[in-house]
Amino acid sequence: MPDDNTATPAPAVDASLSNASLRAALHGLPGVDEVGARARAAGLATRSIKTTAKAQGIDLAIRMVDLTTLEGADTPGKVRALAAKARRPDPADRSVPHAAAVCVYPDLVGVAVRALRGSGVGVASVATAFPAGRAPLEVKLLDTRQAVADGADEIDMVIDRGAFLAGDYRKVHDEIAAVKEACARPGGGAAHLKVILETGELETYDNVRRASWLAMRAGADFIKTSTGKVAPAATLPVTLVMLEAVRDFRAATGRQVGVKPAGGIRTAKDALRLLVLVNETAGPDWLDPAWFRIGASSLLNDLLMQRTRLTTGTYSGPDYYTLD
Ligand SMILES: O=C[C@H](O)COP(=O)(O)O
Question: One cellular component GO annotation, for this chain's record (predicted)?
Fold first, then answer.
């Protein structure tokens, strides 16, 4: 992700923006070819990736991982262990790159920040009454401001799916814009804002495309598929629709927005398929942790095992690595 001062500025409040004008804009987007999206995703499963590209892809995927723990039972010790793993995924092999970020609940941001100082690994925090997002806006803003004050580099907010599905696009837009403002740091710069659409609750691919555009219009730095608490989560067709949205949004506005599939991504094969999809849909400009992340609690070990197999010809079993 670009450094601290490059988060997109909060968009100026547009008083003329009405729900009707947003509805007209979002419903005027071309419809998604659902059959085509599924066929494209299914086609990726049959592709083979050659050894050199695979080795590069695995290292890139490691650099894109937002190593996540979002459990009620999370403790400072667990977050410190996760931070150590993100800094040095394989303590026996210094050539393994570090992960992009550690993603935690807001009350554990301080622990993660202290554990990761100077490492180059970011701290992301879910906020805005994650995962349901059912709280008054003031509560969501407080949640965000606290995480930013504690040192979060990135805020992963959830949209109000109820408002979206009820057609109240203005409410969703204004809430995102307000959270974006709350990402600003008093001393300058801002935390980057990832907007979670929770695509598993949006019913249709057309809605995924509309929610993607709405979030980008309201100032999202990234659009993210899922909380990891709702199934289906980061499916390939949904990720495809979101990659098309960021590609088209950049063509229309000149602004590049990142994409983060999250939830249910567990194997190196899943990660490599995602990278192929990024390359062939949004394009190589997105093949960078600044623009593409993979949110996952248990992907890193499979990436490490596949990496070891490529470099040594043998697998280390999962017991060789620390838990992720
Ligand atoms: O943002 C990341 C997700 O919460 C992680 O989901 P996961 O546990 O299915 O990998």
Answer: cytoplasm
